Amino acid sequence: QVQLVESGGGLVQPGGSLRLVCAASGVTWTITTIGWYRQAPGTGRDLLATISRDDSTYYRDSVKGRSTISRDTSKNMVFLQINDLKPEDTAVYYCNDYLTNKWGPGTQVTVSS
User: Fold this and answer.
1) How much is the mean pLDDT over the chain?
2) pLDDT one-digit tens code per residue, 46-79
3) How does strand 107-111 pair with strand 10-12?
4) What residues have CB less than 8 Å from 86, skipping those under 6 apart?
5) Average pLDDT, integer, range 25-40
6) d(CA 60, CA 91)
7) Helix, strand or coil for residue 105?
């Protein structure tokens, strides 16, 4: 059974960095794609980045150039490094397994001075 749990969020000052972690047990790494999403208050859930079975990646324009998605299948983890954080990056961040459409509970990221 697939279970996803995000961690690594917190309060960070503008310009800072965070490394978010998605612990993804039960995932079929040879088939699936994992996506990172975020949802700010009063808005929908937006796709930020994906990493596919062949390690190809996609980034939304708003985070392209300051984010890196990666995975370590031996540890069942997917990472999202975000640099140069801005107040508009404040949101709950989620990971999703495309094959099963399972979601984690999310981790809060707050960017504020």
Assistant:
1) 97
2) 999 999 999 999 999 999 999 999 999 999 999 9
3) parallel
4) 14, 111
5) 96
6) 15
7) coil
> What is the identity of the amino acid at 51?
I
State the pLDDT at residue 18.
96
Structure-token pair, residue 30:
């040879």
For residue 59, give both structure tokens: 């980034």
- CB contact at 8 A, 87 and 112: yes
Read off the pLDDT band of 42 (50, 70, 90). Answer: very high
Type of residue at 92: V
Q: Cα(91)–Cα(105) distance, rounded to whole angstroms? A: 13
Cα distance between residue 37 and residue 84, in whole Å: 18
The DSSP call for residue 60 is -
Which position has the token pair 């324009």?
61
CB atoms within 10 A of CB 94: 21
Averaged pLDDT for residues 84-97: 97
